[in-house]
Amino acid sequence: MIIANTDYVAGKKIKETLGIVRGSTVRAKHIGKDVMAMLKQIVGGEITGYTQMINEARDEAVKRMVEEAKKLKADAIVNVRFATSDIMQGAAEVMAYGTAVRLK
C-alpha cells in the first residue's frame, strides 16, 4: 500500500477515487508515566514514555486505515493526515485519515 501526504503519487495516475478511509485508537496515560512527566516538568526534557505512546498510537491508527483501504481494494492512500483529540482526562485519540485510490 502506497501512503502519501500529497494528493498524488509520483509517477502514477489515479484511476479511481474510492473514498475517505480512517483508522484511530484511543490511548490512556499510565500513572507511572504521569509521575515521570511531573518530574520532567520540573527539570525539563523530553517525556520519552509519552513520545513512545503517541508513536505507537500513530502506528496503530495507520495500520487500521490501511486495513480499511485494503477492504476497498485500494492501491494507495493520498492526502494522509493525522489528528489528535482529548477524549477524557488522561485519554486521547489519534486518528489517521486519507483518500483511498486505485492507480493506473
How is the secondary structure organized here?
Layout: E1 2-3, E2 14-28, H1 31-43, H2 48-71, E3 76-88, E4 91-103
Parallel strand pairs: 1-3
Antiparallel strand pairs: 2-4, 3-4
Task: Note down, in words, how this protein is organized.
With 104 residues, the chain is α+β, with helices and mostly antiparallel strands. It has one domain (2-103): 2-Layer Sandwich (Translation Initiation Factor IF3). The chain has 2 helices and 4 strands; from the N terminus they run E-E-H-H-E-E. A 4-stranded mixed sheet has the order 1-3-4-2. The protein is elongated, with a radius of gyration of 17 Å. The protein starts with a strand and ends with a strand. 14% of the residues are buried. The mean pLDDT is 88.
| CATH homologous superfamily identity | Hypothetical protein apc22750. Chain B
Instruction: Please name the CATH topology.
Output: Translation Initiation Factor IF3
Our estimate of the beta-strand percent is 35-45%
Kindly name the structural category. alpha+beta
Total count of helical runs of at least 4 residues: 2
The strand line-up of the biggest sheet is 1-3-4-2
Average of per-residue pLDDT values? 88
* Alpha-carbon distance between the two ends: 14 Å
CATH architectural designation: 2-Layer Sandwich
In short:
The chain has a single domain (2-103), classed as 2-Layer Sandwich (Translation Initiation Factor IF3), CATH 3.30.110.70. Helices cover 36% and strands 41% of the residues.
